[in-house]
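Session log. Operator J.P. requested a structure for one protein chain; no other inputs attached. Running the standard single-chain path with token output.
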Amino acid sequence: MKNLFFITLLLFVELFSAQINGDNCSSAILIPSIPYVFVGNTNIANDDYYASCPDYGNQGGAKDIVYEFNNGSSPIYVDISLCQDVTDYDSQLYIFENNCNGSPVGCQEDGCQSPSYSAPYNSSINAQLLEPNTTYYIVVDGYSSNSNGNYQLNIESSIGLNAPDSSNLPLVLIQTNNQQIVDEPKINVDFKIIDRGLGLFNHTYDFANVYDGIAGIEIRGSYSSTLPQKPFGIETRDLFGENNNVSLFDMPKENDWILLANYNDKTFIRNILAFDIFTKMGHYAPRTKLCEVIIDSIYNGIYVFTEKIKRDKGRVDIAKLDLDDNAGDSLTGGYIFRIDYWDWNNSWLSNYTNPNFPNDDVRYVYNYPDIDDISIPQKSYIQQKVSAFEDALWGSNFEDPILGYRPFINTRSFIDYFIVNEFARNVDGFKKSRNFHKDKDSKDSLIYAGPVWDFDWAFKDHSSAMLNGAGWRHDYSGPSDVKPPGWYIRLLQDSTFANDLSCRYFNLRNTVLDTSNLFQFIDSLGNVLDEAQERHYVRWPILGINVGTPEIGIQPNTYEGELLKFKNWIIDRLNWLDANMPGNCPNVGIPQHLINEPVFNIYPNPTDEIVTISSSNNIKILNIKVYDQIGKFQKDFNSSKVSLIDMVPGLYIFEVEHELGKAVLKAIKQ
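Structure written below.
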């Protein structure tokens, strides 16, 4: 007992001493080698240093702990993180070179979320270059004077940084010339795009045949900007720094582009699929191109190159509105407004609240013209237009085709927007990242919903109350920093709107939303990505790990498993929507095989050896693929009997391809 007391005391003294020794740069805790892990607490430290990181400003006043690392004779890249289980406060990381004066060479405020903290306000610095024969001071700090507590510091060598020798995807090469990419303002960089075409491989040394010039670049996004793989806003520029309208990947000429990161989408396909569906419905959605991005010779993974939503003939094709267009038909359009993060200057207040948030304001954001380019008469016009629509929508005659809301909106666009976002169960499509547009009256006097945007939280289970494809998102009533209008809640009270929605949905189920078409689209992209995804997941080793959206359920540890999980989710979701879609449109546009859709059975379940799969309508089975519970392919069969004799006990997933499409079943091997 006495020995145990002295051991405990010794451990306490060592920890206390380590904390005191790390109080400032002159007494920093020495890091002997990398990899390195240290668990500590900032409560007993002092506030010696301050840095405001480019990704998010810092209030100062937090206590800090300092570590020292003396790099050897070779340059190395390291990942530094406070994202592990122990960290339980709003943390900050920054790095000084050779001394603790001046500006840090690396700094991040919000980059991840520790399981022990309630928000994504923890810190990580990825691919930080440490020069040879140089001393670095790593400071563990916090956001404000209240930001102190337990932390775990992890430092390890970066992996997967080498650019690919070749790629079947286009390559985007960015050279920052020793500048740091920040969230505003854009910095000028050398920007190249290489794409030799279908069936050919691209190399970093190839001629930049798509674009070779200057671009402005900045970190963009809200939550996505806090993740390790950053999304970027791109502006192609000429030698004088002015807008350079160019056609990239055969997209219409423009100068504003976006590189969507995929840290929160392990399929790389969620946004692409949703945009494609909305386009096939007959609306504009941003065009996309998968690519691999290399920044300062460091591989940064797979991105989706896409168009920024803006007014243009090749994008949201509405009339141009100049600052002096303040009367007559010119005043009436075009406009783009949004439901999104707002401030008091760039938005206006609705006269109505959402029934699910009766005590909270609803505000609309000016997007085109933006707050710097919109005149007072133009503000008044779009406010009055939206207000007139809301008066009619919330009025007692809202169902009347003349006195109600219908003279103000294009109902087809609102229906299609609803279908895409509810199909994806995309909460962001209803509470923020939500666009509307209106042309001038002489062309079209109606308000349109769309374009669609922001699906990295979609097609996922992140609520235990919404599993197996269940639940609505248009009537979201949970925590939200942006309060949406309750327009769809009211629209669905109109039986005509609900019936039109039902007819449109079930017709689309025979075309755009048919699972055979959806899965062919997904599989075709999966095949294109098969090689590049291996590099991506070396650079960002997150397969099998719950990162980004806090998902419920098993995380597949293979890319093939992610695609299977994605398709299974879609099947469950469409089945639920088929059974719960509002309105009544009996059998309109629905082929007989969907009216009497076959039901497949698997038996015995559980089983020891062999299972048999049959259908209610004697549908011919073409092929059966068997996967384990994490999505790894096991074997396939061309008959309705499947042998599991040589498989280990556990849950198995059966993808049944039949003459009318596909079905997914599950069984347990005992």
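Operator note: Residues 1-19, 589-596 have pLDDT under 50 and may be disordered.
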